[in-house]
């Protein structure tokens, strides 16, 4: 298919225009016009680019691309190395940040809910990025934490009373620990995100709402893969998802 057609389709599917974001969503580095093979991954790291080149991909789709608000605007050092490789190989780089977090079926929050068996019931917060839902059967914080470890293949950082019963949960994938403040005012048992900051320990202890940091990468590896699978089916594209391990 044509690159432009792919870009238009995803733009509509993820309602890209609806979001205020910290980086451009859509085509970030232009490559060839014709796309047959796509590679998906969480972050457009050098390792992902090298792997995509060795697999003769025509486009790389990621959740974390480039050109973030506030970052150095020059193309030097590691950024130069990455972009030089992309341009030399004529590979397209497309990135979808908040629109991919938010999509109701393919998005990171939706995919994480599926993985953990959470039933979504509501959304709240900035651009409705935090989801709220329930476990079909309540379990102790300790048991839920072990469940998260098994499902995401990584032990989470869990703060709270291990025996506390967990039924209602709010979650937002990635680096969304700052939303714990707002979430802790709601009637929930636990807040789950990817990363932690120092303040979350005190807030969890003082509010009684448990906190789980299950990994930024680990909570965001499912959305971009689901998008890739969807595109492969829809347009008969070849698709490979590369899950390059990241302990953070
Ligand atoms: Zn992220």
Explain the overall architecture.
Belongs to the GTP cyclohydrolase I type 2/NIF3 family. Helix content is 37%, strand content 24%. The chain is of the alpha/beta class and 248 residues long. The protein folds into 2 domains: 95 residues, 3-Layer(aba) Sandwich (Udp-n-acetylmuramoylalanyl-d-glutamate--2,6- Diaminopimelate Ligase, Chain: A, domain 1); 111 residues, NIF3 (NGG1p interacting factor 3)-like (Udp-n-acetylmuramoylalanyl-d-glutamate--2,6- Diaminopimelate Ligase, Chain: A, domain 1, 3-Layer(aba) Sandwich). The strands form 2 sheets. It has a 6-stranded mixed β-sheet, sandwiched between helices. A 5-stranded mixed β-sheet has the order 1-4-3-2-11, sandwiched between helices. α2 packs parallel to α3. The longest helix is centred in the last third of the chain and has 20 residues. It is elongated. 42% of the residues are buried.
């Amino acid at each position: 298919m044509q690159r432009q057609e792919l870009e238009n389709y995803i733009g509509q599917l993820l309602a890209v225009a609806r979001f205020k974001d910290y980086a451009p969503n859509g085509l970030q580095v232009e490559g060839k016009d014709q796309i047959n093979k796509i590679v998906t991954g969480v972050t457009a790291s050098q390792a992902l680019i090298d792997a995509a080149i060795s697999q003769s991909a025509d486009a790389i789709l990621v959740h974390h691309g480039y050109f973030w608000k506030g970052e150095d605007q020059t193309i030097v050092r590691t950024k130069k190395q990455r972009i030089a490789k992309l341009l030399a190989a004529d590979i397209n780089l497309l990135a979808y940040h908040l629109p991919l977090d938010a999509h109701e079926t393919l998005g990171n929050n939706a995919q994480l809910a599926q993985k953990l068996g959470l039933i979504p019931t509501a959304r709240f917060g900035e651009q409705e990025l935090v989801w709220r839902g329930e476990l079909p059967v309540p379990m102790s914080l300790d048991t839920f934490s072990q469940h998260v470890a098994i499902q995401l293949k990584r032990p989470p950082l869990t703060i709270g009373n291990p025996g506390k019963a967990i039924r209602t949960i709010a979650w937002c994938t990635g680096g969304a620990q700052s939303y714990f403040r707002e979430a802790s005012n709601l009637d929930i048992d636990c807040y789950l995100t990817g990363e932690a900051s120092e303040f979350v320990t005190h807030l969890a202890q003082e509010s009684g709402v448990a906190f789980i940091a299950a990994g930024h990468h680990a909570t965001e590896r499912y959305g971009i893969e689901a998008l890739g699978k969807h595109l492969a089916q829809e347009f008969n594209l070849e698709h490979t998802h590369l899950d390059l391990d990241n302990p953070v």
